[in-house]
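Dear support,

I submitted the protein below through the web form. The confirmation email said the job was done, but the results page showed an empty box. After a refresh the structure appeared. I'm attaching both so you can tell me whether what I see now is the final result or a partial one.
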Amino acid sequence: MKKIEQTKKITVEEVIAELEKHGSKKNLEGMARFGINIENAFGMNSAAIKNIAKKIGKNHELALELWASGYHEARHVAAMIDEPDKVTSSQMNKWVKDFKSWDLCDGTCLYLFRNTKYAYDKIFEWAEKKEEFVRRTAFSLIAELSVHDKKKDDKEFLNFFPLIIKYSTDERNFVKKAVNWALRQIGKRNIYLNKKAIMSAEKINKTGSKSAKWIARDALRELKSEKVQIRLKI
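What the results page shows now:
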């Protein structure tokens, strides 16, 4: 795909044709091995997807059309090119229900959802939902915000610990891994939140849940590690 001129209106059909051209059976097989749902997927690697999104540039209307197409890679591009200030709460609620794979969930959180004005509120809303990937999205958002939102006060992240503790007992694979991820990322923001995260992990570890114990022990292993402690104290 040549660099798209600002004066030319690219169509959803053109983008999908370009995505399909770069797909491969080998990539599809690799995606499946990593637990990615390959339904409606072409088999593209992330670098190629990012390259196409970069050439398109920000485009809210095209993002909506690409998402509506239902193609896996098209939805990745949609998350990358959408404009956060134009995203509505209802759009986010609609998109989150379409998640069927962890990579699309996490990618959309990274490239789009975390940058919207609704991000923090959606965490509490979606954590309460029963659907596996909706709940995962809440904790994926916590993890992404912990890494990328440098301006938020510690108190904002303290509010997430009750959610982490509450849903640490969810035995579903894609939820428990996201809960663990969220706990670890908060605990690596600074030494104060590290101590709070360790306290929460120790509390989680005392429950009888197999999932909770895995989350706690894995998090404690990293949060108490020499590498993390040295970095936070510098």
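Response: this is the final, complete result; the empty box was a page-load delay. The first helix runs from residue 12 to 21.
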